[in-house]
Write a structure and sequence with these properties.
about 280 residues; alpha/beta; Nitrilase/N-carbamoyl-D-aminoacid amidohydrolase; six-stranded mixed β-sheet; 7 helices; 14 strands; globular
Length: about 280
Amino acid sequence: MKFKVGLAQVYPHLGDVEYNLKIYETQAATAVEQGVSLLVFPELSLTGYTLRDMVPVVSQRFDEPAFERLLHLSHQIAMVVGFIEESSDYQFYNAAVFIHDGKILHLHRKIYLPTYGMFDEQRYMATGNRIRAFDTPWGRMAMLICEDMWHPSVPYIAALDGAQFLIAISSSPSRGMEGGEKLYGTQAWERMNRVYAQSFCQYIIYVNRVGYEDGICFWGGSEILNPEAECVAKAPYFEPDLQVVELDTERIRRSRIFSPLLRDERPELTLRELQRICHERYD
């Protein structure tokens, strides 16, 4: 099966949900004209990233007008939305939701909330506790949010749950140089994406934001890696962009025949050894 994916590398405004909704609507209209089936937006692109005490102010429930506009829009094009979710018990989550045909197909709540260096997420938000792949009209997918990807167990579990496409959305800031032309974070992300694509024989759909917030610069560089870890779409660094590329599920089949790593995985062994380590370390 072939279908088109759009990478919406946008510059959201901090705390301005209405402005950011208009970005979503504009990007969706352009993507529909190009025949895109799935449009992926960055982490917290509906609200901005460095929210701090604004988290409860910009949070969204699924029955609120802003989200109803997005659900209506999803009749035209499937979307991955990055936002602050307010749960029924008044918890706030850094979340990603996959919407299609006016329905929510899947919700992922960020599991690893960085609270080090310039990051302060866990002070303001609750942590997710589930990793799930889910079925879509174009194949089985999983969604992770930024720091989740830096913990190899999370993409591993998603792959074991059958994910053929791993969608990773982020608000990755510019941090440090590594002796070359690229930032440290840029190089690290590009290496990780290639490792996960090749190790699990899956497409990696990575979408990062651009722009400035509170003195922080976000570097963009959104990309798609095919199951052979070849880059098939690459957005520019530091500039808003919409990348559109056609993906083919046959590439996944060929890659997994040639390199049956997932077939040969032994999750029962992994589980047994993890239980041993937890018992020795924490009991």
